[in-house]
Design goal:
This protein is an alpha/beta fold. The chain has 4 helices and 39 strands. The protein is flat. The protein starts with a strand and ends with a helix.
Length: 361
C-alpha cells in the first residue's frame, strides 16, 4: 500500500487533502468502494461517475479542482499519470524463482543471475539468458539465442535459433520470434510477375520452390511484442525491431523488415518482406504495408489503410488505397454530395428535354 502523499510525489501531482490515507488499489471512478481506493479521472466526461460511486480519493486533470471529493491529486497529463500509477501498483505475473524441475536447459546454455524459468520451458544449445530475466511456462528458446537482462517472456512464446533479444524486452503469450519467412519462387515466370509486367495473368504457378531463411531476428532494448505476433527471421540478413518500439497483438512482421525506434504498430498490421518503418511512426490496426515499401519517420498511418506507395515522413495517410488525409476528407465531402448532385442532374436533364421539345415545336 502507498499513501496519497507518496503517490502524489511519484506522479508529480498537487495533493489537496489528507496525504496519510493508505491506498490499496487504483480503480475506475465507477468502481470505487471505500477509503483505500483511488479513482482516476482521465477526462471531464468521467466526472458523472462520481455521483453514484463512493469516491473519497481521486486523481483528476488540472482545471477540475472544484470536484467535491475530500482528497484530490491534481495532475497535468492524466494518461501519463495512469502509466505511472499502473507501474506503481503492478501485480507481476507469477513465475517461481529458479528453474522449474520440468524445464529442459541444454548444458551449453548460459543462465544469468536471478533468472526464473517456468514449467516445461526449453533453452537450446549455446543460448544465453541475461540476469533477472523471467520465462513463464512453455517458452521455447532455440539454439544460439541471446536474451538480455530484465526481460519478461510470457507463456507459449517461441524464440527461434540465432535470435537476439535486448534488455527489458517484454514478449506476450504465444508470440513467435524467428520463424521462417514466407518466400517462394517459381522456376519460370509466375502469375504475379506476369501481372506486374502486363496487368494480366499470362503465366501460372505450376511449381513453388522454397527460399530458406538463413538470417535471424534482432529485437533491441525496451521493445514490447504483443500476444500472437509473428516476426519472421531474415532470408540472408536480419529482421530488426528498433529500440523502444511497441507491437500489438497479432502483428505480422515479414522477413528482412526493419522497424525503427519508438514505433507503435497496432493489432493485425501486416508488414511485407523487406519493408521499412521509420523512427516514431504509428501504424493503425489492420493497415498493410507491401514488401519493399517504406513508411517514413514520424508518419501516421490510419487503421485499415491499404498502402500502395511509400509514405513520406511526417505525413498522415488514410483509406484504401491510402492517400493523404486532407485528400481523403475532401473526397468524402464530395461523395456525400453525390446523391444531391445526381438528383439535380436528373432535373436538369428533364428541363433540357422540355426546352428542346418547345424549341423544336
Amino acid at each position: 500500500m502507498k499513501t496519497l502523499a507518496e503517490i502524489a510525489s511519484h506522479v508529480g501531482g498537487s495533493l489537496h487533502g489528507d496525504g496519510s490515507v493508505q491506498i490499496e488499489r487504483i480503480v475506475h471512478p465507477s468502481l470505487a468502494q471505500g477509503n483505500s481506493d483511488l479513482a482516476l479521472i482521465l477526462s471531464p466526461n468521467a466526472i458523472r461517475f462520481l455521483e453514484k460511486a463512493k469516491v473519497l480519493n481521486v486523481v483528476l486533470p488540472a482545471g477540475l479542482e472544484g470536484v467535491p471529493v475530500p482528497n484530490r491529486i491534481v495532475v497535468e497529463r492524466p494518461r501519463l499519470v495512469l502509466a505511472k500509477l499502473t507501474q506503481l501498483f503492478e501485480r507481476p505475473v507469477y513465475i517461481p524463482s529458479g528453474a522449474h524441475p520440468t524445464a529442459v536447459i541444454d548444458p551449453t546454455a548460459t543462465i544469468g543471475k536471478d533468472v526464473c524459468i517456468g514449467p516445461n520451458c526449453c533453452v537450446g544449445p549455446n543460448s544465453k539468458i541475461g540476469d533477472r530475466s523471467r520465462l513463464a511456462a512453455n517458452v521455447t528458446v532455440g539454439a544460439e539465442v541471446e536474451v538480455g537482462c530484465d526481460g519478461l517472456i510470457h507463456a507459449g512464446t517461441y524464440i527461434g535459433d540465432r535470435s537476439k533479444i535486448g534488455d527489458r524486452v517484454i514478449i506476450q503469450p504465444n508470440a513467435t520470434i524467428g520463424g521462417d519467412g514466407f518466400a517462394f519462387v517459381t522456376p519460370e515466370t509466375g502469375s504475379v510477375e506476369s501481372v506486374r509486367a502486363t496487368g494480366e495473368v499470362r503465366h501460372f504457378n505450376t511449381n513453388l520452390v522454397r527460399i530458406f531463411s538463413l538470417g535471424n531476428v534482432v529485437i533491441e532494448d525496451d521493445v514490447e511484442i504483443g500476444a500472437g505476433a509473428c516476426i519472421d527471421r531474415g532470408t540472408l540478413g536480419e529482421t530488426r525491431i528498433g529500440e523502444g518500439s511497441k507491437l500489438d497483438n497479432l502483428v505480422q512482421v515479414g522477413h528482412n523488415v526493419t522497424i525503427g525506434k519508438n514505433c507503435l504498430i497496432v493489432s493485425q498490421v501486416g508488414l511485407g518482406g523487406s519493408a521499412k518503418v521509420g523512427d516514431r511512426a504509428v501504424v493503425g490496426g489492420q493497415a498493410g504495408l507491401p514488401d519493399h515499401m517504406t513508411i517514413g519517420n514520424d508518419a501516421v498511418v490510419h487503421a485499415q489503410a491499404g498502402i500502395t506507395s511509400n509514405v513520406p515522413e511526417r505525413s498522415v495517410v488514410i483509406g484504401s488505397p491510402a492517400q493523404p488525409k486532407r485528400d481523403f476528407l475532401e473526397r468524402e465531402v464530395y461523395l456525400k454530395k453525390l446523391p444531391r448532385l445526381s438528383k439535380q442532374l436528373k432535373e436538369l436533364k428533364q428541363q433540357i428535354a422540355l426546352l428542346s421539345e418547345k424549341l423544336g415545336a
